[in-house]
Amino acid sequence: MNTPKLVFIVEDNPAHQKMLQVHFEQMLGNYQVKTFDNPDAMMAELDTKPFAIVLDHYFPNGKTGMEYLRQIKRKHRSIPVIYYTTATDEKIREEAKSAGVDDYIVKDEASLVRLRTALDQIVEASSKKGFFKRLFG
Prior knowledge:
The protein is α/β, with parallel strands linked by helices and 137 residues long. Helix content is 50%, strand content 18%.
C-alpha cells in the first residue's frame, strides 16, 4: 500500500475541520490530515512539505487566506493549494488564481465532490511529473 499523502487543512471552524478530516481519511483514503485553526501554526510546519494544502479565506486574526497563499507560494511554489471558502466574490477568486492557487472551491452542498475532483487532478499531475522525472531524470 502507498504511504498516505499528508494534507494540511487550514480552517478555523472546528466542525468544517472535522468534516474535511473525515472526508480525506475515511472517504477518500490514502490521506493523512493535519488540521490547523491558526494559519500561522501551519506556516511554522510548511517545511514538512505536505502533498497539498486546503486553505480557507477568512480567519479571526484579521488576515486572509490570500496573505498565507502568497507566503506559501513564495516559500514552496510546488505545494498545491486549494482555496476552500465561503467567499463568492469574483475579485477574490481572480486574486487567488493570480497568486498561484491550484483550485478555488466555494463551500456549498457540492463542494466535497469538487474537492475530490481537485485532489484527483493534483494526484494525476503529480504522477505525471514523477513519471517524466523517472524517464528523463
